[in-house]
Structure formats: C-alpha cells, structure tokens
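Progress note, sequence design subtask.
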C-alpha cells in the first residue's frame, strides 16, 4: 500500500476562535484527516514572541485543544500535539538558525507589522529577538516532521517559502535530507468584519468585528443585526462588500437553498436586508449551538482528554526525535 502523504498545520492558542478561523482553517483540517496523515499542533511557544500573560497562555493552550476536538479534529485519526512538550522543535530551530540568512528574515512582513504594533504601544513593549527569529521556529515545526504539505492561505505563503529556502540551504550544505514542503491551497471563504467590511474579520479590531465560534445566541443576533450592508453614496450596481460578506457567511455555513432564494430576491431588487440578516444569524446560531454542545461534552471528560493529548503528543515526539537523531548525525553532533 502507498503511504499517505504527511500534512502539517499549526495554530496559536488564542483565548477564543472565531468563525473566520473555523472556516478559514479548521474545517479544512477536519476534511484533510480522511485523505492524509495529518499532524496538527497548538504552537504555544510562538505566543511568547509578543507580550503575554503566562496564566492566559496555559489556559488558552488547554482551551484550544478542547476547541479543536469539538470542531472535529480526531486524535484517533490525526496526531494532535502541544508544541512546547516536544523540545525537538527548539533544538532543530537552533540548528536551522545557523543555516538561515539574516537578509531572508529581515524581509518577513509579519516582523515589520508586529514591530510597528509594539512601537506604537506602551514604552516597555520592546521588540524581542524571538519576534525576529520566530519564522525559523515555524520552519522547524514543519521540517521536524518532514511534512509533504502545509495547508496555507495566500497571506501565509511567504513563511512557507522561507521554510523551503531553509530546507534547501540545509540540503545544499549537508546533503539531501529534508523534503521541500509544498503549499496545499484550498478554497477558503474570505470573511470580513461585520462592522467594517473593508477589513478582514479579526479579534484585534474589537468584539463587534467578529463572531466567536462558541458565542451565545443573543450576542450573535445583535452583531448580525447591526452588520454594515450598503454604504451611503455607493451608486455601483455591484453588490456592496457588506452584503457580499453576509452571502459569504451563508455559503460558508452551506445554506445553498437559502442563498438561491435570497440571490434571486437581490437580483430582482426585492431583497430585504433584515431577512438576509435573519438567515445569516440563524445559520451562525445553528453552528455555534452545535459546537458549544460538543465542547461541553468534552469538558465534562477533561481528564480523559488530557490523557489522550499527552499520548498523542508522545507519539508525535517520536517522529520528531527520529528527525533530530538523523540531523545531529548529519551536522556532526554527538548522538544522545
């Protein structure tokens, strides 16, 4: 039998996932489990590159694991791990640091963006070396498992390209070892802010700009009801970004029949935005209610979940250890 190709994807532990995260990444992860050998990680070390609360980091990491399982990530089908529990990630990071050019890192746009964010904030928010070099840790996350594919959006392609460049530089210096990870592009709905459809849905903009994946019904309906539709002064026949975003939310929720009816009304000029918003709210409430129920079931068995994740992380570490054993030998380092 042919070996399944290996897919690696990771997510930072935040205090709450929103529907943009869910439809933009997690639903794709769930589907990939059926076709590939999938390894999914919660990358808590990445959070440390920006100011953070240790207590929140710990709690958010545990909560992200629960959320992923509630969304359909199955530790029996995939390997689900916590990054900081596998020290081979950081060991490989140091080795890859030594084959990565300063110039390549300095061109990373996220470093520039986050540096500007820190400089515009409080005076004690200094820019750490970790923020500058964390793309190498991202590369190590991928290369330590010698992944074939990495699911990415177009905005993340730069980081994967750096990982490929680092792998090529290592292979050129020490001989062919790392496969060059390929991007796995998928059709991802572009969900925009309900309050400002000129911007991507993001928690950093404030609570009114996103819908939490486990948000309560009353809050969701309030946000959708106040969603921006047409902007005054728009004389174009093209659908406005706000209205298009509401239809995109329905599409993400797979409400095909409802979309057909509402699109017909829109094209005939009879669509009432209040009805469109009601349907969007209904679809989102249906989704979040189901996910909240699953999450409650998991939280009721948290000891079992923690045991499963420790076992899954241990199995994942075995793969990372195999890579590090070979890398140490290739690089002239003694065996442990």
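Output:
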């Amino acid at each position: 039998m042919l070996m399944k190709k290996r897919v690696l994807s990771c997510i930072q532990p935040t205090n709450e996932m929103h529907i943009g995260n869910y439809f933009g990444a997690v639903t794709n992860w769930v589907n990939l489990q059926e076709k590939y050998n999938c390894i999914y990680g919660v990358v808590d070390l990445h959070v440390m590159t920006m100011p953070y609360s240790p207590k929140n980091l710990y709690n958010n990491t545990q909560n992200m694991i629960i959320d992923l399982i509630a969304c359909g990530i199955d530790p029996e089908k995939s390997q689900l791990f916590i990054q900081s529990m596998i020290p081979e990630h950081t060991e490989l990071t140091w080795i890859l640091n030594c084959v990565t050019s300063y110039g390549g890192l300095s061109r990373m746009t996220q470093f520039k963006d986050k540096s500007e964010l820190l400089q515009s904030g409080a005076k004690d928010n200094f820019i750490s070396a970790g923020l500058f070099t964390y793309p190498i840790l991202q590369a190590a996350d991928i290369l330590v498992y010698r992944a074939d594919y990495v699911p990415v959006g177009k905005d993340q392609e730069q980081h994967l390209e750096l990982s490929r460049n680092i792998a090529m530089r290592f292979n050129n210096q020490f001989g062919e070892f790392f496969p060059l990870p390929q991007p796995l592009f998928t059709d991802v709905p572009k969900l925009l802010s309900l309050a400002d459809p000129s911007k991507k849905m993001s928690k950093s903009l404030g609570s009114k700009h996103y819908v939490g994946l486990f948000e309560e019904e009353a809050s969701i309906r309030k946000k959708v009801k106040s969603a921006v539709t047409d902007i005054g002064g728009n004389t174009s026949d093209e659908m406005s970004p706000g209205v298009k975003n509401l239809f995109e939310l329905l599409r993400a929720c797979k409400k095909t029949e409802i979309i057909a009816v509402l699109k017909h009304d829109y094209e005939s000029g009879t669509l009432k935005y209040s009805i469109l918003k009601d349907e969007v709210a209904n679809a989102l409430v249906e989704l979040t209610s189901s996910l909240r129920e699953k999450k409650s079931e998991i939280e009721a068995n948290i000891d079992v979940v923690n045991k499963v994740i420790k076992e899954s992380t241990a199995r994942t570490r075995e793969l990372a250890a195999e890579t590090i054993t070979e890398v140490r030998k290739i690089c002239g380092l003694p065996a442990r």
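The chain has a mean pLDDT of 91. Work on this subtask will continue into the next period as scheduled.
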